[in-house]
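Exam revision sheet. Question 4 asks you to relate a sequence to its structure. Input first:
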Amino acid sequence: MIQPVQEDAFERIVTLDAAHIKFGPGATGETGFEARRLGLSRVMVLTDRTLGDGPQVAAVLASLDAGGIDAAVYDRVRVEPTDRSFRDAIDAADRGRYDGFVAVGGGSVIDTAKAANLYHTCPADFLDYVNAPVGRGRPVPGPLKPLIAVPTTAGTGSETTGVAIFDLEGLHAKTGIAHRALKPAVGIVDPDNTRSMPPLAAACTGLDVLSHAIESFTALPYTRRPAPDDPSMRPSYQGSNPMSDVWSSRAIEMVAANLPAAIDGDAEPQAQMLLAATFAGFGFGNAGCHLPHGMSYPVSSNVRDYRPAGYAGDHPMIPHGMSVILNAPAVFRWTAAADPERHLQAAALMGAGVAGVPAPEAGEAVAQAIIDLMKRTGMPNGLSAVGYTPADIDTLVGGTLPQRRVTKLCPRPFDEQDLARLFEGAMSYW
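Answer key, structure tokens:
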């Protein structure tokens, strides 16, 4: 006979680890001040080749110089990083005598800086810190050196989180490293730095914000997660909770209200999208994501020849935000059965009329609101539009199963057959 789980075996405590955020036009000019405040004297500035000669990096370097901070630029960050590109940045960090790090770029750059900081400060076998079951999932043994994150895309919220995502090339699967110690010491969120984003990049990163927020808002409630044996083992991703709900719900509203105009280049909506990314980062960095992100990793890792417009690089890629949102409508149609009211609230936050919508139609309400925004922002029509066919579903399912760090927060239990049906449903939407 199966014994019922004791009520006190479930979590009753939630924690919020807030990042130090500085927001406003021109905030980049205070990078040197923040570095000085943190006691830094020599920093590694990480960026990618597209940004390396641009105004964002120039502004950071000028501010560091004015603050008397010695800076060395590393511009080899790979967009959609891999374990190989992480190792290259780690090697570069090990060759310099740095007492801190500055990341200038999107999520790929900030995540790479987190990894360089981690392995430079706390050397270990690469898989030691990588999330189980792909890696060993060992906790970070101590504090890292200060990292200042200067995002140039309005999407990942990586300036607020202790997560670094990469593609493990040998497995053709995305995974990551997650620990509170990876959180940047400061996030400098400057709307001036996102003014030059290409339209498709703005769309992809903005829709990543949307999915972050809806996933954390609909994630398994923290009170349905087993309590840790020791407080030190409480996970970073804790499940939906009253504190993350505040940030996530506001981010959903902001994306729906501002993303199309931000793509068109309007300055104030662009600023609001950058702020929404940070809000969503507070939400999902505390509550976590679930299936749209878990399913996105094999979509990105198994790309064949898709090359998105406006993205520099010499390799095929499906941008992270695109790979996430292509799965989202299919997922939320299905997860709504676990909590119809939450899903209806998400649809309402996007501006959908949900008065009188019955509970069984909650999933369709939120899915259709997302699809409408996908159409308005130029997203491909499902996985088939980026090169996948039903023959790929087994591969995509196999790449999702190891993503337990996020999929365990799905509000509805699932198996391989459920995942196969979800990928089938994500092949096309209109």
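Marking note for examiners. The longest strand covers residues 100-105.
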